[in-house]
Every structure is written in C-alpha cells, then in structure tokens.
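Hi support team,

I submitted a single chain yesterday and got back a structure, but I'm not sure I'm reading the token output correctly. Could someone confirm the output below corresponds to the sequence I sent? I've pasted both exactly as they appear in my results page.

Thanks,
R.
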Amino acid sequence: MTINKDTKILIVGLGLIGGSYAWALSSQGYEVGGMARRNEVIDYALDRGWIAHGRTDMDPYYIGQFDLIVFALYPQSLLEWLEKNQQYIKKGALLTDVTGVKRCIVYDVQKMLRSDLEFIGAHPMAGRESSGIENADKDIFKNANYIVTPTDANSPQAIDACMQLGKILGFRNISTLTPEKHDEMIGFLSQLTHCIAVCLMTCRDSESFVDYTGDSFRDLTRIAKINDRMWSELFLLNKDELVQQMDLFERQFQTLKQYIIDDNTAGMREMMRCSTEQRKRFEVRKDD
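Hi R., thanks for writing in. Yes, this is the structure output for that exact sequence:
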C-alpha cells in the first residue's frame, strides 16, 4: 500500500509515542483515529485535534474502518489485542508497531495473523523520561532514527509503506534491520544505558547530593526516571542480548578501574581519547 491523505490510520495506545504519532499525522491532514483504555485519554486527544475520533471499547465496526493500524502498546498487550480483535480488522490492512523489542513480537504476530493482513515491525528511536499522552510532542521525531524490521514474510510494498510512514513523521534517518540485529543493537544502545542510569541512581543515597550536583550527573541519569512496568518487560524479553551487553560493559569498566588502581595514566588517557572520538560520531547535525 501507499500512504496518502485517503489512508485512514488508527493508533492503538495513546501514550507518549502513540499520542505523538497521532499529533504528527493529524497536523499533516491525515485522518487519525485513536483507541485507549480511558475516556479521559481519548478526550484529551480529541480536544487538541490529534485524533478525529476515538473509542475505548473494541467496536468491530470502528476497528474495521482503518487501512493502517499502529500499535503503541506494550509487547504482551499487543499480542493479546490481536488475538482477540484481529477478526475485525479490514481486509488488506497494514499493521505496524513502536515496541522496543522485535524477535519476541514480529514472528509471533506474523504467525498468528490472518493471511489477508500484513504486519511489519518498526521502532521509533525517540522518547522521553516522562510517559503519558500529556507529554506527547509532534516534533519528538525530528533528528531521531526510525528502524524498520522486515522479515521474509513481508512484501516490498509493506516495507516501502512503513518507511514512508517514518518520512511522514519527520524522522531524520530511516533504516532497516532484521529483528535479531535490532535486538542486539537495542540491547546496547538503549537497554544497557537505562540499566547503567538505574544502577547509578540506586547504588547510594543521593538525596544529600541534590544541592551540589552539576549537569554531568543530571545528563547521565536523565533516563533513570523510568517507566518500571514497560522497561522491566523489555529487559526480560531481550534478556539474552542485554546480559551480553552488560557483561561487555562490566569488562570495560573493570579495565578503567584497574588503570586507576595501577596509576596507569597512559591507559586512562588512551581510553578517554577513544571515547572522545567515538562520541563525536553521535553528534546530531542540526543543519542536516
């Protein structure tokens, strides 16, 4: 399929990312519907014009109107939703998601899905430490990365449409990875960093340090303000990859620790020079 202004889009789950999708798409003239568990979430999105309509109940007629459905749900909730409601989805509809793990989702969904529907995984590498629709922002995707995770079961048309969605939303860089490579990458770039931030905030009582901290500690621990339900589920669903990345970090941390114990200035400086050069690659060029 090709996404155009006649494409009716449903966002299932209007939290931070789902709300941001809805806002970004509606602001460009797409007809967007929303589904959420609570009426106040639907009302919040309706009042701001982020959705044209919305429901909290699983109405078969409503679900069956849409050409493209984006699932902004926790992984297990996504599987449960499809198991109960895929029978109502319009024939030929394209389904995608925003979840932060792929191996445990993509293959299970594709295996259980009706033959006249297609699911392709996607991961917007954008977010904030605060959750909920009240923190949604249509500009959250600017300068961010968007990863499409196709499998052999996906058609070229579905891959193109999913990448087109990333362009419409305004992502800076759009790429493809297998679900396996995605989960390896995300274990290092996202999950490990959250683990480090959580451990740093909990390894000692930092309340007495609040009045003395500088930007370095605040910057490093920003993501420690964490959605415990979502992230604990993501950690466990990607446990094998995450544990490998934690082992990698522990070895490198131990190396630096030993340099300090041994008064090895040359080793420390070389490690810091390497760190500086590696970090330069991650700088976002605002003029791109």
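A quick pointer for reading it: The longest strand covers residues 118-125. Let us know if anything else looks off.

Best,
Support desk
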